[in-house]
Amino acid sequence: MANLAAQAGVALLLSACAANLPHGSQVEYFPVPGQRPLPFAEAVRVGEMLYLSGQLGTDSTGQLVPGGIGPETRQALTNVATELARHGATLAQVIKCTVMLADIGEWAAMNEVYVTFFQKHLPARSAFGTTGLALGARLELECVAVLSQTG
Known about the structure:
Layout: H1 2-19, E1 27-31, E2 41-46, E3 49-52, H2 69-86, E4 94-101, H3 107-114, E5 124-129, E6 139-146
Helix pairs in contact: 2-3
């Protein structure tokens, strides 16, 4: 009986969370630009929040830039900035980033590049090591921005 009550409580909590979008918020899904269909959106906007999918250090051809963690970090953040610009935002509006590293030992080298992209503030951030990333990348970076905030 206690298990059934716990399950009902969890179900109620989950449905309340799903229903609690900010008043009047609409969800917009933005596909990844280009010809290649991918199984995720480039970004999702919920009200004034913009959630970006993870970015790798890939160039315009979809290939990883050479040189390892430093150049890949620079390219991934350039890709984030480009993606934000498509949605009328800048890096100054980023409030949270998550960094996934193929080797957590490269954290300091990634940070050297990362901090050069955030001139006015440093977003909240999490970083963790993984057992592998798409395309053999050294890092993947995802960010959240507030669109109503200006830099």
